[in-house]
Design a protein that fits this description.
By secondary structure, the protein is an alpha+beta fold. The protein has 2 domains: about 60 residues, no CATH class; about 130 residues, no CATH class. Helix 1 packs across helix 3. The relative contact order is 0.18. Strand 4 and strand 5 form a beta hairpin. It has a 5-stranded antiparallel beta sheet with strand order 1-2-3-5-4. The two termini are about 15 Å apart. Helix content is about 40%, strand content about 10%. InterPro entries: D27-like (IPR038938), D27-like_C (IPR025114). One of its GO terms (biological process) is strigolactone biosynthetic process.
């Protein structure tokens, strides 16, 4: 059965500008499976249903020296938090670390360990003294939920975190009747296309990232993955829904899921 999910957002998105992506080159795509186009954008899910195999293009991202340092650092932080080491380097090592965590821990523990890993990878004193110095001195204190703060985070994400999620751009949404550039559109999430697992996306990326950004930086963000085309929207200034109401946690996994890990929805074996 073919399935998709409903994305309950409070924003009306439209593309207005694309920010430069300094760290990623063009991808050389190798098609390894095929996605059957959905018959409708509003198809109800059943617990036994699952997405058809996605058209997964494993790209050559041509990571820069900065990208490789950041990827290896995050990978080592995840391995240190979980206590599960692997000998792989680069993005392969990060994917292996995430997959090992999903195999050895339950969903809530996975989310807890990734938050610990993010704290190791991006210590709060470093954030406050370096890249987000301006934010800590001015934005968080005086304008914690302002238009400027939301747009600042959107631009910052596209410029400095494309090595993790892949090419992305800033888009507009409507907030309190006004248009602002507070949304990051990830064209195809690098992490999701490499893991090919809904559970890893939800438990080891979406929820930990939302919580880390909110608790460490004071900015709410709702990450809305599209499991059909592997894109994602990061909507800054919007609170995510509770886990029990979040469509991502009602979504069955891909038939070609490598992890076959439960994520609040029973996946086919």
């Amino acid at each position: 059965m073919e399935a998709t999910h409903l994305l309950p957002t409070r924003t009306n998105l439209s593309s207005t500008s694309c920010w430069p992506n300094h760290s990623l080159g063009r991808k050389k795509s190798i098609v390894v499976s095929v996605l059957t186009p959905p018959a409708s954008n509003r198809i109800a899910l059943t617990e036994s249903s699952s997405l058809k195999p996605a058209e997964v293009s494993i790209g050559d991202y041509n990571d820069s020296w900065f990208d490789r340092i950041a990827i290896n650092h995050l990978s080592q932080s995840v391995q240190a938090a979980t206590g599960l080491r692997n000998s792989k380097s680069g993005y392969d090592g990060l994917v292996e670390a995430a997959t090992a965590a999903s195999m050895n821990f339950g969903p809530s523990k996975q989310r807890e360990l990734v938050i610990q890993a993010l704290d190791k990878a991006f210590p709060r004193p470093i954030l406050s003294l370096a890249s987000l110095y301006l934010y800590y001195l001015f934005i968080r204190t005086l304008l914690p939920q302002s238009k400027f703060a939301r747009e600042y985070f959107a631009v910052f994400t596209t410029l400095f975190f494309a090595w993790l999620v892949g090419p992305c751009e800033v888009r507009e949404s409507e907030v309190d009747g006004r248009r602002e550039k507070n949304v990051v559109h990830i064209n195809k999430c690098r992490f999701l296309e490499r893991t090919n697992c809904v559970g890893l996306c939800s438990n080891l990326c979406k929820v930990p990232s939302q919580n880390f950004i909110k608790e460490s930086l004071g900015m709410s963000v709702n990450m809305v993955p599209n499991f059909e085309d592997m894109s994602c929207e990061m909507i800054f200034g919007q609170d995510p829904p509770a886990l029990m109401d979040d469509p991502a946690f009602k979504q069955p996994c891909y038939k070609l899921c490598k992890a076959k890990q439960r994520h609040n929805t029973k996946c086919p074996t």
